[in-house]
Design a protein that fits this description.
Length: 273
């Protein structure tokens, strides 16, 4: 087993009612209600970021965490992983599933052979269907035209996909179609709390020609080593897109868990059909 030098950070932890948060937001103004939580989290993160400049590994309460970097970029949302290889965003999504969707059985996950997939695969609790975007592969699915029947899944999980698909509105409609009545979609994508409207960073025409409206932004991708282009940073109008597709209840779930180094601004769309 590989041994690494890890900085112990137990001393940074404080007992506080603000160490954890899981909250529902229906509009931008709702986030103001959690400013004391946010300020406490950010103060802790400032200490962590200072250590991350020097150490790639830290240990808190016996658990090892790794600070990863993609092309020298670093965020606690994406780069703080535990021993399972799951980052803050992924680990918080598991807390949401445990809180909201314990009864879900048939689950669709829009990824395959990733640390997140392996986490679910090891559980006997779910009937799991996975896919990848790779034309010709047996697991290939295009999220704008899924091949699954209507009303197939209790829960659809899509993480960091939507911003990479120019026709994201059709994706939302397809997720609605394959979700069972009473089922839900749990989705994450770049979401700017302060913005009412979505920012379009790039467009693509019928010939496949891309026009960059802002500096190109590429995200890490398990299939493409060079990363994948981000077309959108979403705003609160994304919730309206889910409502327009037919979802009866749409909200943002946010939170963190300092005890588990689940950090940064974590935001998930929870949409019930």
């Amino acid at each position: 087993m590989l041994k690494v030098f890890a900085r112990n950070i137990d001393h940074l932890h404080e007992d506080s009612p603000y160490n954890k948060l899981m909250a529902e937001l229906e509009k931008r103004e709702d986030y103001v209600n959690y400013q004391q939580h946010t300020q406490f989290r950010k103060a802790f993160e400032k200490k962590i970021l200072k250590i991350a400049n020097t150490f790639s590994y830290v240990r808190m309460f016996g658990t090892l965490y790794h600070f990863n970097r993609f092309k020298k970029l670093f965020s606690l949302r994406e780069a703080c992983t535990d021993h399972t290889g799951l980052n803050s965003r992924m680990r918080f999504s598991l807390k949401i599933i445990n809180q909201y969707f314990r009864g879900a059985k048939k689950i669709y996950l829009t990824e395959h052979n990733t640390p997140y997939h392996k986490k679910f695969k090891n559980s006997k609790q779910y009937d799991l269907v996975t896919s990848i975007y790779k034309p010709g592969d047996v697991l290939h699915q295009d999220l704008t035209k899924l091949t699954y029947p209507d009303n197939s899944f209790d829960l659809c999980l899509s993480f960091e996909d939507l911003e990479h698909i120019p026709d994201y509105q059709t994706v939302i409609k397809e997720l609605y179609r394959v979700t069972k009545p009473g089922g839900s979609v749990l989705l994450s994508a770049p979401f700017i709390l302060e913005n009412d409207r979505t920012i379009t960073r790039a467009t693509i025409n019928e010939k496949g020609e891309i026009t960059h409206l802002l500096t190109p932004e590429y995200h890490g991708d398990p299939v493409l080593p060079l990363g994948i282009l981000c077309y959108y940073h979403f705003g609160w109008d994304l919730l309206d897109s889910f409502r327009d597709a037919g979802f009866k209840s749409v909200k943002v779930v946010t939170g963190y868990d300092i005890d588990k180094l689940i950090l940064d601004t974590l935001l998930f769309i929870v949409a019930e059909k």
